[in-house]
Design a protein that fits this description.
The chain is mainly β and 54 residues long. 0% of the residues lie in helices and 44% in strands. Strands 6-5-4-1-7 form a 5-stranded antiparallel sheet, with no helix packed on it. It has a two-stranded antiparallel sheet with strand order 2-3. It is globular.
Length: 54
C-alpha cells in the first residue's frame, strides 16, 4: 500500500484542515487521510504529496 505525506497544510473535500506532513493512503487519484476518527479525502497531486516508506 502506498503511503504519502502532504507537503503543505490542506483543506479537505470535507472542509477539514489537515496539518502539513500528515499520513495519507493513495486510492487511485484520491488521497485518504490515515485517521480512525474521521474520513478525510483530497485529490492526489504530485506537487502537494510525497511518498514515504513505513
Amino acid at each position: 500500500m502506498n503511503h504519502y505525506r502532504n507537503k503543505i497544510a490542506l483543506i479537505s473535500y470535507e472542509g477539514i484542515e489537515v496539518d502539513e506532513a500528515s499520513l495519507w493512503l493513495r486510492k487511485g487519484e484520491l488521497m485518504v487521510l490515515v485517521d480512525d476518527d474521521q474520513y478525510v479525502t483530497y485529490p492526489f497531486s504530485e506537487s502537494k504529496f510525497y511518498e514515504v516508506e513505513l
